[in-house]
Design goal:
The chain is elongated. The chain is an alpha+beta fold and about 575 residues long. It is about 55% helix and about 15% strand.
């Protein structure tokens, strides 16, 4: 039978594997996005014309009519225009441009696409408003929206959308007439790009779901090159900081090498768009790649911030231990988990926003879902609140020895949901924080001194004067002993019993822990016993007595009395041996 053999990867192989995984994820996401785009394009109503044509496919009575071309929002207009260009359908693309009757549709669409391919930089999907009213805080007129720029030599043309109203009151967005006229005046001309120069002959003219296969291959190679160069640059910068930082701050660099790879991915995501524009990648490929790039950038940024959070909190915990502030460790551990959870939540929100989900609706759904979750997960919320109470009130801290309920042990970890305690049997007990915070907790680690409380039992035959001298001498002895402090030292006659005098000894001992206290207590008890012997007092010991009734009635028959006498004597002997053994 064959067995699988797992070979551990070296750090270099692990980093190469991570880079390759990122690139494969990018390509796979691009393929999924292209498939989704094709499905959406097939479901779109392909039509062109004036407002009269739109009225033919809409209901005039409904004022909130959905535009058949998806132009209700600025984001929908930009995405629909890019899809029309990727499908090479100028007739459909013309619906997203505000054209005059004298404009040549095919030529105008070609010039706009050429401008976008040459130097167009559209904003990301999150930056383009997804509201029908547009972004009201961009310092533009309410009916205008800026979605990007086009660079021509040293001149920059703003890509402006205008909100228009159809005859039946339907609102939709189109590229403004001023933007189209500015692009025509700039006179963009087709030029040979890097992609055109170095494209292999078998890839020329071939398309993959409407996208140029040469551009897809170019994007893959550009992403790989950018990632490799960014990794080298970040690695060299990290090595320089690691060498220079100790000379400046007199301490080692607090960030380890784990941040190199995520930081390199973030840098790659930042420069990839400019590299694609410089190489001449078509805008129809750049836009879906930019969306995937933004998603990968958020993943990499989240990964980087998680590394930084670990480094910051690890350093804070080390400083807490070094300065003997162990009470801060539990708070830092809980804060680290909360910060990571909040960071992941925000990252997921932005990632889903780049995927095209409505963030406003999603946040509202999270609020409703959170309420439903709160009603169904009361115990989980109770444990979360209990963890906050335990950390804020600090009845115990990590490393403290405590007694809770009917168990006791050392606190190992205080988490978000539960607290783990190692018992004397070396087992780990996990207690939900909701229950733990409501228990009666006795913290032995907070004890500043240990109580010494013992009784001496002196015989009743001891002379009263000797007893008084013994009590006075023990008082002075306890006060002056090196193991006791001045908190409460007292020796008193506590009780008069029939068989003994009870002398109570009370004191407090300074000790570092239970083991240290037991050693000091043993030494103090031995010294007390020696002091008692010096005064000639005797300790009272328990005494057992056996009483025999000698006046018991003798048996009536003499024969039977002679026979039972040896038996009775044997029973008395046995009973006496048993009592002697018990007394010993």
């Amino acid at each position: 039978m064959m067995r699988a053999v797992f070979i551990p990867l070296s750090p270099l192989k692990k980093k190469s594997f991570c880079i390759a995984t990122w690139l494969l994820t990018t390509v796979f996401s691009l393929m999924i996005y292209l498939l989704c785009s094709m499905s959406a394009a097939q479901a779109t109503v392909f039509a062109v014309g004036s407002t009269t044509d739109i009225e033919a496919v809409t209901t005039i009575a409904d004022q909130d009519i959905v535009d058949p071309f998806g132009r209700q929002t600025p984001r929908g207009t930009v995405q629909g225009f890019i899809r029309a260009l990727s499908d090479n359908d100028p007739t459909l693309a013309a619906n997203y441009l505000h054209l005059s009757p004298n404009d040549n549709v095919n030529e105008t669409v070609r010039q706009v696409q050429l401008a976008l391919d040459t130097g167009g930089r559209l904003q990301t999907d999150l930056q383009i408003s997804g509201s029908p009213a547009g972004n009201m805080a961009d310092r533009l007129p309410p009916n205008q929206e800026k979605v990007g720029t086009v660079s021509r030599d040293e001149h920059t043309i703003d890509l402006i959308l205008e909100r228009r109203i159809a005859e039946h009151g339907n609102h939709y967005w189109q590229f403004s007439d001023g933007t189209i006229r500015a692009i025509k005046r700039a006179g963009f001309e087709a030029q040979s790009t890097l992609v055109d120069r170095y494209t292999l002959t078998p890839l020329e003219g071939r398309k993959f779901y409407g996208y140029n296969l040469a551009d897809i291959v170019a994007v893959f190679l550009l992403a790989l090159t950018c990632c490799f160069i960014a990794y080298l640059l970040v690695g060299v910068l990290y090595l320089l900081l690691k060498l220079v930082y100790p000379y400046i701050r007199r301490k080692p660099l607090p960030v380890d090498a784990k941040v190199i790879l995520p930081l390199a991915l973030v840098v790659t995501s930042m420069i990839l768009t400019e590299v694609m524009v410089y190489a001449g990648v078509s805008v129809t490929v750049r836009e879906p790649v930019s969306r995937i790039k933004d998603i990968v950038a958020w993943f990499a940024l989240t990964w980087l911030l998680l590394r930084v959070i670990d480094a910051v909190f690890n350093r804070a915990e080390r400083l807490s231990y070094r300065r003997n502030h162990t009470e801060r460790v539990s708070i830092l551990s809980l804060l680290r988990k909360l910060v990571k959870a909040i960071l992941l939540i925000f990252a997921m929100i932005f990632i889903f926003g780049n995927l095209g989900f409505d963030l406003t609706t999603g946040i509202a759904a999270l609020g409703v879902g959170g309420l439903a979750l709160a009603l169904g997960a009361q115990k989980m919320i109770e444990n979360l609140v209990g963890s906050v109470v335990v950390v804020a009130d600090q009845p115990v801290r990590v490393g403290d020895y405590c007694k809770f309920g009917d168990q006791e042990g050392t606190v190992v970890d205080i988490g978000i949901r539960s607290t783990r305690i190692r018992t004397l049997n070396r087992t780990v007990v996990t207690v939900p924080n909701g229950d733990f915070s409501s228990l009666r907790i006795e913290n032995f680690a907070q004890r500043d001194m240990f109580s010494f409380l013992h009784n001496l039992y002196i015989k009743r035959t001891t002379d009263t004067a000797v007893l008084q001298q013994l009590i006075v001498g023990l008082n002075e002895f306890i006060d002056e002993h090196e193991l006791t402090n001045s908190e409460w030292n007292q020796v008193r006659l506590a009780e008069l019993r029939q068989d003994c005098f009870v002398i109570e000894l009370r004191a407090y001992i300074n000790a570092q822990g239970a083991a240290d206290f037991y050693d000091k207590q043993t030494q103090l008890l031995l010294d007390v016993l020696a002091k008692v012997e010096a005064y000639g007092a005797e300790h009272a010991l328990p005494v057992q007595q056996m009483l025999l009734d000698t006046n018991a009635q003798k048996p009536a028959q003499s024969d039977s009395s002679h026979e039972s006498l040896p038996v009775l004597t044997e029973q008395i002997k046995r009973r006496g041996q048993i009592d002697s053994a018990d007394s010993e």
